[in-house]
Design goal:
single chain, Dihydrodipicolinate Reductase, domain 2, twelve-stranded mixed sheet, Alpha-Beta Plaits, Rossmann fold, alpha/beta, about 425 residues, binds L-homoserine
């Protein structure tokens, strides 16, 4: 077995493989022996539990002649080429690489099937939280209608710091970087790309349909202000970056990632700090919730090692992991067709006919209004309108028309809303 990447996760995988060797041998039926570790750090920079003799920067040399390759490099290349070569050579692969799977999943799953090997990726979504297994195997006998979750710990930490400590986005991001949650380049987290890759994987599993990262409508949290968070709290909401995967009608799938107003009584509103939580709704099971650590070396290593034990057991006893299941081939809705409810906050002139004018814009664009609240202030008024669930394209046109409506002085905020 070889481990590609001995960083935060890889080093914990190696440590636990050493410390728990007897247990893993009992559980899988074979001793799990690391024959090579691919890492750019020199042997002397490695922690004491890593045997320097096993470490090499030559990754290619580690994917031939092994039973299992653990890929923890991240990124697309060289990970993609190495994983394909490992599988073609008969190795099962365990990876935490969400970007790779959400971009090249079909190619990789087909290669695994062709080679008759396992391709496991529990750690790619929500770290230690076993939601991949739950969707792929525990719920294979049910019909999933919705997956909704906080799948990026960094952004949840940032939004939570803004809510609980009154920090600005920039200060909360700086805290996240100081504590090691956010990378020096935080783009993938704060712009929602990490969550979008995970949403694609969750939707693919939940709906037995191929969903790639480019199918996901994404909005990050970079523009969220302290005022947005404070207003959300005053209105009885927490602002969370949610991944939302919905089955729409008989044949559609809507997958989106965006800041969302979540009612304070909703279970996802109570998820603090860098934790992850995923709610799954299925026809027979009803609502399920999975919660835990979505990032960090040891939690991700737990997920990786669960996959490693399963892959090793298959080597010993035969069998394979379930194959990719994409038979349903549902229609993945484009950015205008995904559906959400939306809150729009307007500053308007407080005069006759304003509400009628605003309501007219909604009606003309086919968007149904769920609630309207008006708060007077000086000569203006602030109106908050929450829509029913509507097509994103219709919601966009509504907001664009509101911006052009003379009585509307300012569109203050536009945010998706999750029902209770
Ligand atoms: N950067 C991710 C997060 C962890 O903040 O949740 C790895 O997926």
């Amino acid at each position: 077995m070889s481990v590609l990447g001995a960083g935060t996760v890889g080093s914990q995988v190696i440590r636990l493989l050493g410390e728990r060797a007897e247990d893993f041998a009992q559980r899988s039926g074979a001793r799990l022996v690391i024959t090579g570790i691919g890492d750019r750090k020199s042997a002397s920079e490695q922690p004491p539990f890593i045997d320097p003799a096993l470490v090499t920067p030559d990754l290619e040399s580690l994917v031939d002649g092994v039973d299992i390759v653990i890929e923890l490099l991240g990124g697309i290349e060289p990970a993609r080429g190495l994983v394909l070569r490992a599988m073609a050579n008969g190795a099962s692969v365990v990876t935490a690489n969400k970007a790779l799977l959400a971009t090249h999943g079909p190619e990789l799953f087909e290669a695994a099937a062709r080679a008759g090997v396992d391709l496991y990726y529990e750690a790619a979504v929500a770290g230690a939280v076993p939601v991949v297994y739950a969707l792929r195997e525990s719920l294979a006998g049910d019909t999933v209608t919705r997956v909704l979750g906080i799948v990026n710990g960094t952004t949840n930490f940032i939004l939570d710091e803004m809510a609980t400590r009154g920090l600005s986005f920039a200060d909360a991001l700086a805290d996240a970087q100081r504590l090691g949650y956010a990378e020096a380049d935080p783009t993938a987290d704060v712009d929602g790309l990490d969550a979008a890759a995970k949403a694609a994987l969750l939707a693919s599993l939940a709906f037995h349909t191929r969903v790639g990262i480019t199918d996901v409508s994404v909005e990050g949290i970079r523009h969220v202000t302290q005022a947005d968070i404070a207003q959300a709290a005053a209105d009885g909401f927490a602002l969370k970056l949610l991944a939302v995967c919905d089955r729409v009608g008989d044949d559609g799938v809507s997958v989106r990632v965006h800041p969302t107003l979540v009612p304070l009584a909703h279970p996802l509103a109570t998820i603090h700090g860098p934790f992850n939580a995923v709610v799954v709704e299925a026809e027979a099971a009803g609502r399920l919730m999975f919660y835990g650590r979505g990032a960090g070396g040891a939690p991700a290593a737990s997920a990786v090692l669960g996959d490693v034990v399963a892959a090793a057991a298959h080597r010993v006893h035969g069998g394979n992991a379930p194959r990719e299941s994409a038979y349903a081939a549902l229609r993945v809705l484009g950015p205008d067709d995904v559906r959400t409810a939306q809150s729009v906050r307007l500053r308007v002139a407080d005069e006759v006919g304003v509400l009628a004018a605003v309501a007219g814009v909604y009606a003309r664009n086919g968007v149904s209004i769920e609630s309207v609240r008006q708060v007077p202030s000086d000569e203006d008024a602030t109106i908050t309108i929450v829509s029913h669930i509507a097509r994103a394209g219709d919601l966009r046109r509504t907001v664009a028309e509101l911006r052009e409506t003379p009585v509307v002085r300012e569109v203050v905020a536009v945010t998706a809303v999750e029902a209770g």
